[in-house]
Structures are given as structure tokens and as C-alpha cells.
Amino acid sequence: MVEAMSYVYLGRSLNMENDLKEELGRRRRAAWAAFGPLREATDQLTDHELRAHLFHPTVLPALCYAAET
After folding, report:
1. Predicted structure pTM score
2. What pLDDT is recorded for position 34?
3. Which of 23, 25, 38, 47 has a beta carbon 3.0–4.6 Å from 13's, enabling a disulfide?
4. Would you kindly state where each structural domain of the chain is located, as residue ranges?
5. CA 61 to centroid of chain Cα atoms
6. Per-position b or e across 48-62, b if 16+ CB within 10 A of its CB
7. Interatomic CA distance for residues 21 and 15, integer angstroms
8. Bridge partners, residue 9, by sequence
9. Over the stretch 6-64, which tens digit does the pLDDT of each residue have?
10. In whole angstroms, what is the distance from residue 57 CA to residue 43 CA?
């Protein structure tokens, strides 16, 4: 058995110091990765309401995954 300082369990990054920095960075990367395929199309949009309408259903689930536990 190997001792680890941090690991991902059920979609959540846990570490021995209870530091959220790594977890928040991992969530932010996942959120932007989810939005990546839409970025080319949304960069050309000038309507901010439409951009938000596309942003919310793609980025928020990736950002908030397993946040309630």
C-alpha cells in the first residue's frame, strides 16, 4: 500500500492538509475543458445573454460536479 498526499475520490480531489486550492484548480480546468468545443462559436457572438445561455449548461455542471458532498 502506498501513502498518497492527495487523491481523487468520487470526483473530488482530497488531500491530507484539507487545502481546497488543488480541488478548485481541478474544477476550473474541467469547466474550461467542457467549454472548449464551444469557444470558437461563442468568440464570434456579441450578444452576452446568448453567450451566457450557452456557457451555463456546459460549464456549470463540470464546475459543480460532486460539490454538494
Report:
1. 0.64
2. 87
3. 23
4. 6-64
5. 8
6. eeeeeeebeebbeeb
7. 10
8. 12
9. 888 887 788 888 888 888 888 888 888 888 888 888 888 888 898 888 888 888 888 88
10. 17
22 close to 13: Cβ distance less than 8 angstroms = yes
One-letter amino acid at 30 equals A
- Amino acid (1-letter code) at residue 12: R
Nearest-angstrom CA–CA distance, 17 and 3 = 14
Q: What is the DSSP secondary structure assignment for residue 5, as one 8-state letter?
A: S
Q: Helices 48-64 and 21-42: crossing angle, nearest 10°?
A: 150
Question: What b-and-e string marks burial along 7-18, b requiring 16 or more CB atoms within 10 Å of the CB?
Answer: eeeeeebeeeee
CA distances from 52 to 2, 7, 45, 56 (A): 44, 33, 11, 6
